């Protein structure tokens, strides 16, 4: 069945992201990531040209309120190329934008500032409404959803950059509840701000975060892109279309049953696409535990060479190929290390923090270790230290 109309919903473009930390360590990868954000958006524009009637962008078009003229020009050129209506709201990264006067948006672009900001389109005889509310400051605690409402009897798209039910792992901007979006005569809520693709409600109304268009760090793994939304009568169909240029992918490298490094590399190669960034976590137990713990960078480089990708080591959760419980009952130095670490692991993170930073030079590390304590990870650090120390003892 042919849809009455279709639109593209994307958010969190972050055009102009500079990837400073990555670029400092690997300039070529940093440059590729910088370009990949623009390339991803160009693919979205191509999709909208071919298959949609209009586009909505739910905030953070730019990564910085002081975007460069080059970035602004790029966006304007893509919008002229689109040639179809595009509706934008401002988010916390682009609550204000540079070059508004000297590099104005083309006529097909409209920024929905807020209040009763809305537009009505007539698409092949059907009226479609777009309403939206924008940030006016970087940090806002205002519930922008509360003031938004559609027109009864008309299909309405609500566009807003917000945090629903405290979903944000960072600062909770424009907080609201999912329940705030019901009974507003808005059939599709086009949300932005959360970089993880999430459908909060399938229908009546449809509430969607498309995620950002290009992963920017190891916490943003998986395919990134936009939604192509097709509407037929009261039916809403969503098609996620991946457009990312570089894929950040979470990969588990299990050392269990692997006798040498080549076997480990061969086992993870199918999970590491060429040109991707593989976020590796080493797991399992076996004879490779020692080499993984002593030289994780070297193992990562071996995987990168074999697969033609970049590798970021996210964690080491491997164990020696030994019966730790039996060892803990012995009278060796390793036995004492295990018993001591297990005793510490029974403490709370707060107790561990006090113990480790009780005085002397260790007290200077309190601020650093508090980061792990606040995240409930200090006991994991103790476990890692135990295993690393056992390896050093056995190596000696």
Count of domain modules: 2
Unreliable runs: none
User: Mean pLDDT, nearest integer?
Assistant: 91
Look at the structure and give the CATH class of the largest domain. Alpha Beta
How are strands sequenced across the largest beta sheet? 4-3-2-1-13-14
Distance between the termini: 72 Å
Overall spatial form: elongated
**What's the β-strand tally?**
17
CATH architecture annotation of the largest domain: 4-Layer Sandwich
Structural class by sheet pairing and helices: alpha/beta
Summarize this entry quickly.
By secondary structure, the chain is α/β, with parallel strands linked by helices. It is 31% helix and 25% strand.
Give the SSE layout.
Layout: E1 5-10, H1 20-25, H2 27-51, E2 54-58, H3 69-82, E3 86-89, E4 109-111, E5 118-123, E6 126-133, E7 155-161, E8 163-164, E9 175-176, E10 188-192, E11 198-201, E12 206-209, E13 225-232, E14 235-242, E15 248-254, H4 261-268, E16 277-285, H5 289-294, H6 296-307, E17 310-319, H7 324-328, H8 333-345, H9 349-356, H10 366-374, H11 378-395
Parallel strand pairs: 1-2, 2-3, 3-4, 6-7, 7-10, 8-9, 10-12, 15-16, 16-17
Antiparallel strand pairs: 1-13, 5-6, 11-12, 13-14
Explain this structure.
The protein is α/β, with parallel strands linked by helices. The protein folds into two domains: 5-242, 4-Layer Sandwich (Purple Acid Phosphatase, chain A, domain 2), CATH 3.60.21.10; 248-395, no CATH class. It has eleven helices and 17 strands. The chain has helices at 20-25, 27-51, 69-82, 261-268, 289-294, 296-307, 324-328, 333-345, 349-356, 366-374, 378-395, and strands spanning 5-10, 54-58, 86-89, 109-111, 118-123, 126-133, 155-161, 163-164, 175-176, 188-192, 198-201, 206-209, 225-232, 235-242, 248-254, 277-285, 310-319. The chain has a six-stranded mixed β-sheet, covered by helices on one side. Strands 5-6-7-10-12-11 form a six-stranded mixed β-sheet, with no helix packed on it. The longest helix has 25 residues, at 27-51. The mean pLDDT is 91.
């Amino acid at each position: 069945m042919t849809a009455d109309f279709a639109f593209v919903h994307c958010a969190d473009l972050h055009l102009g992201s500079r990837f400073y930390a990555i670029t400092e360590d690997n300039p070529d990868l940093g440059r590729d990531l910088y370009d990949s954000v623009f390339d991803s958006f160009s693919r979205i524009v191509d999709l909208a040209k071919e298959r949609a009637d209009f586009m909505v962008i739910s905030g953070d078009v730019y990564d910085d309120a002081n975007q460069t003229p080059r970035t602004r020009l790029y966006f304007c050129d893509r919008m002229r190329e689109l040639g179809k209506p595009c509706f934008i709201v401002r988010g916390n990264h682009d609550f204000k934008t540079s070059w508004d006067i000297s590099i104005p948006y083309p006529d097909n672009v409209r920024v929905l500032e807020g209040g009763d900001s809305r537009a009505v389109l007539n698409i092949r005889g059907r009226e479609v409404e777009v309403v939206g509310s924008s940030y006016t400051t970087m940090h806002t605690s205002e519930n922008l959803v509360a003031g938004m409402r559609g027109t009864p009897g008309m299909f309405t798209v609500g566009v807003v950059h917000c945090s629903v039910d405290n979903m944000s792992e960072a600062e909770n901007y424009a907080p609201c509840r999912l329940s705030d979006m019901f009974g507003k005569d808005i059939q599709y809520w086009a949300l932005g701000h959360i970089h993880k693709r999430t459908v909060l409600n399938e229908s009546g109304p449809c509430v969607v975060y498309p995620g950002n268009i290009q992963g920017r760090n190891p916490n943003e793994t998986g395919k990134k892109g936009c939604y192509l939304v097709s509407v037929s009568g009261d039916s809403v169909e969503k098609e996620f279309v991946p457009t990312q240029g570089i894929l950040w992918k979470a990969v588990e490298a299990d050392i269990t049953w692997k006798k040498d490094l080549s076997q480990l590399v061969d086992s993870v190669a199918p999970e590491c696409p060429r040109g991707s960034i593989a976020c590796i976590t080493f797991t399992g137990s076996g004879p490779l535990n020692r080499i993984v713990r002593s030289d994780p960078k070297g193992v990562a480089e071996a995987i990168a060479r074999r697969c033609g990708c970049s590798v970021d080591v996210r964690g080491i959760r491997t164990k020696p190929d030994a019966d730790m419980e039996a060892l803990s009952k012995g009278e060796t130095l390793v036995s004492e290390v295990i018993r001591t670490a297990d005793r510490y692991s029974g403490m709370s993170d707060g107790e561990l923090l006090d113990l480790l930073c009780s005085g002397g030079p260790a007290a200077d590390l309190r601020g650093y270790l508090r980061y792990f304590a606040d995240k409930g990870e200090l006991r994991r650090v103790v476990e890692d230290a135990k295993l690393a120390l056992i390896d050093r003892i056995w190596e000696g």
